[in-house]
Design goal:
- The protein is mainly alpha-helical and 210 residues long.
- It is built from 9 helices and no strands.
- The protein is elongated.
Length: 210
């Protein structure tokens, strides 16, 4: 029987095996990169033979489509864990920024960032990422981040959230070649102040504290 001819039967064992494959794919995308994490490398990491891998995912396209969905669910799950109310006395917007900064260093977020980078020159991957990117942008960042930051929904507050989000994502992906820790701490402080200025919260007026 050709493993490519028939899809894997949906059994508890097959679901566990698929989950193991997808978890391995997610971790390898984050650690090795999308192109280095070939189906064969992923199969080996999941302790499967090539034939067993083909039984569950007959092509790279099938694996990528399932992996994107898996990683997106893992991102949403982590986002919910981090989306707690700020501790007493902690500014909601600053709490949201710290939470998202921490999330960007978790495996599912690192894996998704790698896929987004690789998608620039990979039409198949770009097409499979599109819906997950849109859903996360609207449902997680748009709605949940709004609730975490306790900010309104008008364009100024939307810009405030976008400024914080995209600066953090750029910082997470950027390569700082010297004084990395100090530079990131300064940038994070300025991001928080910029968000507070846009939100008109407190008496913050200047981005750079004297």
């Amino acid at each position: 029987m050709d493993a490519r001819t028939y899809p894997a039967k949906e059994t508890p064992k097959s679901r566990r095996t698929r989950a193991r494959i997808l978890d391995a794919a997610m971790r390898l995308f984050a650690q090795l990169g999308y192109h280095a994490a070939t189906n064969a490398v992923i199969a080996d990491a999941a302790n499967l033979t090539r034939g067993a891998m083909l039984y569950h995912f007959a092509s790279r396209e099938e694996l990528v489509e399932a992996a994107v969905a898996f990683i997106d669910l893992e991102r949403a799950r982590l986002f919910e864990q981090y989306a707690s109310a700020p501790p007493p006395g902690v500014d909601a917007a600053e709490h949201a920024i710290d939470a998202y900064w921490a999330l960007l260093h978790e495996i599912p977020f690192l894996a998704f960032a790698e896929l987004e980078s690789a998608a620039r020159t990979d039409p198949m991957l770009k097409a499979r990422l599109a819906s997950a990117q849109s859903a996360f942008d609207r449902n997680q960042i748009g709605d949940r981040f709004l609730a975490i930051a306790q900010a309104g929904g008008d364009p100024r507050f939307q810009t405030s959230r976008d400024l914080g989000r995209f600066l953090l994502e750029g910082m997470a992906r950027g390569a700082m070649t010297f004084d990395e820790k100090a530079r990131k701490e300064r940038l994070l402080a300025v991001v928080k102040r910029a968000v507070r200025v846009l939100n008109r919260k407190g008496d913050v007026q200047e981005l750079w504290p004297e």
